[in-house]
Amino acid sequence: MPQSLTRLYAHLIFGTKNRHPFLDEEIRPRVHAYLATIIRDMDSPYVVVGGVSDHVHILFDMGKMHAPVKFVEQVKRESSKFVKTLGAKYKSFFWQRGYGMFSVSPTHLADVEEYVRKQEEHHKKRSFQEEFREFLTRYGIEFNEEYVWD
Questions:
Q1: What is the domain partition of the chain in residue ranges?
Q2: Could you tell me the CA-to-CA distances from 56 to 2, 4, 5, 6, 65 in Å, in that order?
Q3: What is the pLDDT of residues 41-62, one digit of tens each?
Q4: pLDDT at 72 over 80
Q5: Phi, psi of 42, deg, nearest 5
Q6: CB neighbour list of residue 7: distance below 8 Å, 6 or more residues apart
Q7: Considering only the top CATH level, what class is 9-148?
Q8: pTM here?
């Protein structure tokens, strides 16, 4: 077959360093838009970004050109540089070292998109830590609490 075809949807989650609430209402829409732009520029035509003050959720089509670890490194590096340009109070901004990336079936895409878009509502009931533990459990990923929250 002469073509290489993919359809790999992923749900990427990562937080701010020490879960500091850097992503306040003043900059959150700009940061989300910038994250979407970075990912579109990496040949992902489908991107949805949501989140709250201390973390983001990104639903996207992974495409075929990037290894997941390199993809995440570039997204975090470029967006971190951008956040630091948004004012003096963001100069010490960093993303946490780790992340979670989970596969999404095309049959569940609409549900996950709604979940990503409604993060503010969702986090009125559940903390980031509770939410992330639930993802790890659902995907059968064993983890050490000590290392998840750097």
A1: 9-148
A2: 37, 30, 28, 25, 23
A3: 999 989 999 999 999 999 999 8
A4: yes
A5: -95, 25
A6: 61, 106
A7: alpha beta
A8: 0.90
